[in-house]
Amino acid sequence: MSMKNFFKRIVLGFLILVSTASCAKTIEGVNSNKNYDPSSILVIDFDVKLFNDESSDKEIQKLNFFDPLVVLAQSANRKGRVKVKLQSGVEGWVEEKYTSKIPNDWIKKKFNENYYCYISPDQIMNPNIIKKDNIWVRTELSNLDYTIYLGMITAISYVNSIDNNNERINNRIAAGDEKKLNWSKAFIYGDYKINYTITTDDPERWIIESFDFIKIDKSKISEYYYFNTTYKRSEAPDKRLNQRKILFSALQSLR
Question: Is the pTM of this model over 0.85?
Answer without folding.
Answer: yes
